[in-house]
Amino acid sequence: MNSSARMVARFGLLAALSLVLGWLDRAIPLTWFLSGAVPGIKLGLANTVLLYAVYLMDWRGCVLLMLTKVFLSGFLFGSMSAILYSLSGGVLSLAVMLLVRRDARLGALGIGLLAAASDAFLLARHPSPRGQMLWCVILIAAAAAASLAAWAVIRKRPEWSVLGTSLAGAVAHNIGQILAASTALRTPQLLYTYLPVLVGVGAAVGCLTGVVARRVFAALRVKSE
Amino acid sequence: MKRLHSVKRMGLLVGLLLLCAALGGCGAKDDAAARVLLDGAVWDGAPVAPGDKAPLRVYITLDGKALIDLPFDTAHTVSVVQPDGGENVVEITGDAVTMRSANCDNQDCVEMGAVTADNLEVRVMGGFIICLPHRLSVEVRGD
């Protein structure tokens, strides 16, 4: 088969898959988690498609795929403002994933340290956490530990590199969205109340999607080291 | 040649980051015509008197611009109606503030639950309830 036809076919397949997974992300009610305390969080399964593209396509293809996904799923399921937020998350996340792809260990280590710092920051503001804050502090600590464990795993077994890229991408996505939201609402206070939590949640979710992506890569025999 | 390529790539990434920041700015729209209804009637703009118990107040802002602020400890219902049809109803019961309803597409603000004097410090969002699609924020804070 001619290689440009192959590319178009692959692109269409990935775009369709990311739309369906984006719908699934919206359908899985993670907002129940902590009884609505952490609004706007999603599993980010659609990100596994972008991860796949990051390892399989050049950066132009990745950018095009990200834009296609953001605009189509925005028009299909969301609103104009949803497009703005997911675009800023998508752009930052893709940029970080393309950078981290070269050395995923750095990604996992960086996210582990970032999550640990976020946890320390939350603990400094709330020395004796209770209620929602207690659960968040525990979750973020677990996410930091998982990211550092991912760093150790990638050092030993480079085929797990995609885990580091996934972690960095998920956290960058959350950072991009909160930056857009706090700029649009002119509420910089959001950054120090909510950003640490989003970094932790991003690391937790990034671990999950990274493991999913690794399984998919193994089944499809994509090399990610 | 390879070096030039990587310089171009970095330039592109920086450009994308700038785009990302600019988009945040574009998210804000003109809110001149938003209407505020206080307890069912169009609010005349007169300051709402402070309550006597708690020093906390409820600040409602649209696109970062102050719309109205009220005492935390007095029961009121505030509706914010925007020209594009967006409507949020904020309910202050006297000891809690909730987003009672919103005709936005994700209902995150409604599901965020109540802010009370008690949970102010332990809520993930602090004293904030935010409706992102309508760019409306409700904050409970002391002066």
Give a description of the structure.
The complex is a heterodimer of chains A (225) and B (143). Chain A has helices at residues 3-27, 46-56, 59-77, 80-100, 104-125, 131-156, 161-184, 189-220. Chain A has 225 residues and is mainly α. Chain A has one domain (3-220). In chain A, α3 (59-77) packs antiparallel against α4, α4 runs antiparallel to α7 and α5 runs antiparallel to α6. The radius of gyration of chain A is 17 Å and the shape is globular. By secondary structure, chain B is an alpha+beta fold. Helices cover 20% and strands 36% of the residues of chain B. The N and C termini of chain B lie far apart (59 Å). The mean pLDDT of chain B is 82. Chains A and B meet through α4, α6, α7 and α8 of A and α1 and α2 of B.
Order of helices and strands of chain B: HEEEEEEEHEEE
CATH superfamily of the largest domain in chain B: N-utilization substance G protein NusG, insert domain
Assembly level: heterodimer
Could you give the distance between the termini of chain B? 59 Å
- Radius of gyration of chain A from CA coordinates: 17 Å
Residue ranges of chain B: pLDDT <50 for 5 or more in a row? Answer: none
Query: How many β-strand runs of chain B?
Result: 10
**Sheet of most strands of chain B:** 6 strands, antiparallel
Mean pLDDT of chain B: 82
Largest interface: A-B, 47 and 39 residues
How many beta-strand runs of chain A? 0
* Cα shape of chain B: elongated
Continuous helix count of chain A = 8
**CATH fold-level assignment of the largest domain in chain B:** mini-chromosome maintenance (MCM) complex, domain 2
Residue runs with pLDDT of under 50 for 5 or more positions of chain A: none
Q: Between the first and last Cα atoms of chain A, what is the distance in angstroms?
A: 27 Å
